[in-house]
Amino acid sequence: MSGTGPRRTTVRFGGYECDLLSGDLEKNGAKIRLAGQPLRLLTILLERPGELITRQELQERLWPGQSYGDFEDGLNTAVNKLRTALDDKAETSKYIQTIPRRGYRFVATIEVNGEWAQESGDSSAKSGVKANERASATKGAILLRRAAVGIAAAGGLFALWWFNPLPPPQVTRIEQVTFNSHIDTPVKLVMDGERVYYDARAGDHWDLMETSLGGGEGQRIPTPAKNAAVLDVSLSNSRLLLGTFKKRQEEEQLWTAPAPGAAAARLGSTTASGAVFSPDGSQIAYVHNDALWVMDAEGANPRMLAEPPGGVSWLAWSPDGRRLRYTQGALMQDAETTLWEISSEGGSPHRVLAGWSQPASECCGSWTPDGRYYVFTSFHGGKTNLWTLRERGSIWRRSPRGPFQLTNGPGGPFGGTPGRDGRHVYFYNGNWREEMQSFDPATGQFRPFLTGTRAMHVNFSRDGLWICYVNPAQSGIFRSRADETGDGRVDVVGPGLRTAFPRWSPDGKWIAFQGWRRGKPIKIYIVSAEGGPAQPLLGDMTGLRDGDWSADDKRLVVTHDLEAGNPEGSELQIVDFATRRTEKIPGSEHLAMSRWSPDGSYISATQDDQSQLKLWDVPTKHWQVIAHGTALGISVWSPDSRYLYFQDLLGKGEPLSRYDTRTKRVELVAEFSDILKSGVDRCALYSITPSGEPILGLNRSALDLFAADVRFP
User: Fold this and answer.
1) Where are the beta strands (DSSP E) in 33-144?
2) Of the candidates 703, 231, 712, 183, the residue with the CA atom closest to the CA atom of residue 424
3) Quick one: DSSP state of residue 286?
4) Cα atoms in the Cβ-side hemisphere of radius 13 Å centred on 35
5) For residue range 210-226, what is the model confidence (pLDDT) as tens digits?
6) The whole model's pTM is what?
7) What are 265-270's contacts with CB under 8 Å, separation 24+?
8) What pLDDT was estimated at residue 276?
9) How far is the C-alpha of 96 from the C-alpha of 82, rounded, in Å?
10) Residue 114's pLDDT band (boundaries 50, 70, 90)?
11) What is the Cα 395 distance to its own chain's centre?
12) Contact present, 419 and 191 (Cβ < 8 Å)
């Protein structure tokens, strides 16, 4: 009889029946669960019943490339599972005989049915050979070999695919590229194949710098404005995309230039907080008013792609030009940040890595040039590191997508951007190193304050005996004596909350501060000066910051950030400490960083764009503008309430001034051009000592660039 149907090979032994093609195993009609390596082991044993199958052969066929220990564990496990399925025991084996240290033998009589057996025309084969078991076994072995060859080949390929997956990417070496430690605001890195571009803080401005990808001394690049950044370089290296700005928080004017330092041309009237060329250089994707836009490379035909809540940053165009990915959420603020993708033609964005970490903290991603991997930053597992997703794998090997961790500290590697060679990833890392020093205006001399203690946002108690401050390397609020000994140091809040701007109540019993947990909104908290649980000032109300006390301890002034889209931005509110009722200060729209004078007569506040300093006369309920600047920082009252000290952090020499409430005049206290030339890139006002000396933070170290050699399999 000619065989024209499917070639099906079924093997029977004892009360069992095994279909070698489907992998089904039954006993008296009931299915028995057997799969994976135990099933493939049974197939190999049935190929040559009665013959020894060596351990070496089993390793080569079932565990190729595995270590001896992994093979031993795998084989023992497979044999045990197979014996369990067959109700067999090693001591009294009916089916599988162990040959110590050599291998295994299938010892039961088998019967083979199937079309291949019928093709022989042997009637004994058609009815199942019972009389001549030896001949049947021989014929069956031949048939089994033929069937098993296909099964083994398929199984081998599957095993190779499954048990030999593509390995994860691996960092083999990390080298430091820059050594000036003055990169204080990391933005998306830009490289042209030979150089990397970055901005270094230089006191009242930022220098646009370039450095060889191999490292070396940085060189300053002439720019069309005081502050500029390279936003992107076209893949052909024919054009640079530049942004000029006054300060970091504002949108930049866009320019193009044929080369670093060459004459730049303004790109229409477009402003953006980030922009990148498409891979073919014909379009520019950019962020304007927190929305994602695309326009022609010459600035024409702008169109909005998406307007997501929470803002857009760190744009990346896929190498094929079909997709854009971006970060949603505020960077560098411990806020929740997520990765999103949208077609370059528009449509609905969808989230990347939804649910991977809680709270979400993925940001700042870029593709490798071949599009096979996507490198991003995440605060995952309690630390900030670089991670990568496998975007495109191999059809010949199983290709897990990841995410795969690339770095493991030290510090907090951030903003990984693959180089054009596909073998390097460039990123930021480093530690902020800010020294607290007191300044004597009469002599112009600095003196160390709290030597050996990392401190920021220092505030003195009203009696001048105690201070509280934030340590940027730790969470919590620290309290200690104000003298040089620093005795009595206590963390009054404990771990868990990120903190800023602590303020003593006038009676010394309480400390108000702004706090938040990673990925959660900012609130104002109150804690006992002796320590204990911190309580939100206004329960679940969020968007509160910059709290300060009235002279009688009964009220606080706070900044309330309004909901997204509200044109007023923020407002100041007075909170009754006993009842927790709030009242808006009239005319306080767009104001923040409020400070109440010790005598209770005035409240100072800064315009939210840092361009104006205003004073609220509490008795007369009247606002007046007392100073203008480019980037006015926090204001600090002298203990006697006569002077209000303030600073323009982007003015020449970062000048420190004070407003005299008696004469109604502003006078210059000092400017810091000399110390800003000595390796200090910022000199910021924090507090005033009881004797009237300003306390400033001198920042000597921020971030540098590093290069990681990465194997991308």
Assistant:
1) 52-54, 96-99, 103-106, 111-114
2) 712
3) E
4) 4
5) 999 988 888 999 988 99
6) 0.75
7) 267/241, 267/298, 267/299, 268/299, 268/300, 270/295, 270/299, 270/302
8) 97
9) 9
10) very low
11) 30
12) yes
